[in-house]
Write a structure and sequence with these properties.
It comes from Bacteroides reticulotermitis JCM 10512. Keywords: Receptor. This is TonB-dependent receptor. By secondary structure, this protein is mainly β. It has three domains: 57 residues, no CATH class; 140 residues, Ferric Hydroxamate Uptake Protein, Chain A, domain 1 (Beta Complex); 177 residues, no CATH class. 12% of the residues lie in helices and 35% in strands. It has seven helices and 24 strands. The strands form eight sheets. Strands 14-15-16-17-18-20-21 form a seven-stranded antiparallel sheet. A five-stranded mixed sheet has the order 5-12-13-10-11. A two-stranded antiparallel sheet has the order 1-2. Strand 20 and strand 21 form a beta hairpin. It is extended and about 100 Å long.
Length: 487
């Protein structure tokens, strides 16, 4: 009861006995759920039935917390840490786990600065007197190329199962928890890098008895939050003339031009093309599938996760005559496993393996250049195609946008990763309580490739020669015709 020392525990059916009176406030709580308060109204009998639904806690309360290199009791942990668990990570679809962390971990700032992943072709090591040393946390190599991740104004050190790896493109169903440890005490074992804090990612542990199998499938539709509504051709012409006249200059477009833009009586010489509608689809699909298998006994336990993620972009698909897909796309196949072996009562071994295959695709001009061109091309710049089927364009806009989207070749990039780790622990509890020795080993094999095959289609501008009274699709032909007419 609130503000009183009276407490009671319900039985398995939720029944409890309590002396109540009108106006008392019951405070109901359960591990893993948010507490709820219930005010007692007028009592009509000695027995009352309360139907109460408790909401699950956003952040679970566990007895232990994962530190960068070990697990400690939460009661003895003196640092500052915030944690989210797999049920929150898997509630959002994405190619990395970072979208699921936005706004959910106090002290961790995640902001998106790019709409799609960048090509990963830069080597992630530097030469030293002892050989090649991996680079972490500075540009490449991190598989995160879309988000800024910071804690206390600087990027945290990412630790996955006790090994420093900046891997964010991981199946969320294979992760048990993600914890941001913000103070120097929590990350003191990182040495000179302890001021950065630690983002500790812990993968799922196998169960120690029985067998469990689970399958999860997700399918979604994604769309742009908002796209600009560009001016129509006649609106653009009107406002441009007004701006020129305000500067004391002659208008660029005549009344006849304005009328043709408005009525679309000649779409080849006076086009009105909404490039956003022509190049971008309204929506695109994203999907993910995951299979988990776990089991074991007192001697050995295992956990295996197999997952697939596929995501399409919003660019219009090429026509059936094109040999290659030029839409923005991403796919990932991933398998991870963890095996725990109790060699003796004092000696244990833990082996982890992770394999990942990632493939990306985009138009040959790169998606960034194409998006920028859409924003800077007015509706009346040129027609998509000319009457004879050639790509439209002119001197000011010499690269047709639709041609760039579906006819400029393609860029593909791929990543192949194989990561393995072993953790050996020997306990000396028989000699000194709490004393143990641990050996941790890690091997990583990574491959990055990038193929760009691009082309640029010629464009042709329609030039109206009044003396000949026909459209000419070549500047050379226009000059020849003009010379012939003057003779």
């Amino acid at each position: 009861m609130k503000n009183k020392d009276f407490k009671v525990i319900t039985d398995s059916d939720g029944i409890f006995k309590f002396e109540l009176k009108k106006g008392d406030v019951l405070r109901l709580s359960h591990p893993g759920f948010l507490h709820k308060e219930l005010k007692v109204g007028k009592l009509k009998s000695t027995e009352r039935i309360f139907r109460v639904t408790l909401s699950e806690q956003f952040i679970k309360e566990t007895k232990t917390i994962n530190r960068p290199y070990d697990v400690t009791d939460k009661k003895s942990f003196l640092g500052a840490a915030s944690t989210v668990y797999t049920d929150k990570l898997s509630s959002m679809m994405g190619t990395t786990i970072l979208p699921a962390l936005e706004g959910r971990l106090p002290g961790l700032n995640v902001t998106q600065y790019r709409g799609a992943r960048a090509h990963q072709t830069t080597a992630n090591f530097k030469g030293d007197i002892i050989g090649n040393i991996p680079l972490f946390g500075t540009g490449f190599y991190s598989d995160n190329t879309e988000f800024n991740v910071g804690s206390r104004g600087i990027g945290p050190v990412v630790v996955i199962d006790g090994i420093q790896r900046e891997l964010y493109s991981i199946d969320p169903d294979a992760i048990e928890s993600v914890s941001i440890q913000k103070d120097a005490l929590s990350s003191m074992f990182l040495g000179m890098r302890s001021s950065r804090g630690a983002l500790v990612i812990t993968t799922k542990e196998p169960i120690n008895q029985g067998f469990q199998l689970s399958f999860t499938g997700r399918f979604g539709v994604q769309s742009a939050l908002k796209t600009p509504n560009p001016l129509s051709s006649h609106q653009y012409a009107y406002l441009l003339n007004e701006a020129l006249q305000n500067d004391g200059k002659d208008p660029f477009y005549t009344y006849d031009d304005f009328n043709k833009f408005r009525t679309q009586s000649n779409p080849y010489t006076h086009p009105d093309v909404n490039w956003f509608d022509e190049i971008l689809n309204k929506s695109a699909i994203t999907q993910s599938y995951n299979l988990n298998v776990t089991g074991g006994n007192k001697f050995a336990q295992y956990f295996v996760n197999v997952g697939y993620v596929g995501e399409k972009g919003l660019f219009s698909n090429p026509s059936s005559s094109d040999a290659h897909d030029t839409n923005l796309s991403f796919s990932r196949y991933m398998i991870s496993s963890k095996v725990n072996i109790n060699i003796t009562d004092d000696f244990t071994a833990k082996v982890t393996l992770l394999g990942r295959v990632e493939d990306g695709n985009q138009p040959g001009v790169s998606y960034g250049n194409l998006i920028n061109s859409i924003y800077t091309t007015p509706n009346n710049a040129y027609p998509i195609k000319n009457p004879n089927g050639t790509w439209g364009g002119n001197v000011s806009f010499d690269n047709n946008l639709i041609s760039q989207a579906i006819n400029s070749g393609y860029i593909t990039d791929s990543a192949r990763d194989m990561v393995g780790g072993i953790n050996l622990k020997y306990s000396f509890d028989k000699l000194v309580q709490g004393l143990s020795a641990r050996m941790v080993g890690n091997i990583s094999i990574q491959n990055r490739s990038y193929i760009q095959r691009s082309k640029r289609s010629p464009i042709y501008a329609i030039v109206l020669i009044k003396t000949v009274k026909r459209y000419i699709l070549s500047m050379d032909q226009a000059i020849r015709s003009l010379i012939a007419s003057t003779r």
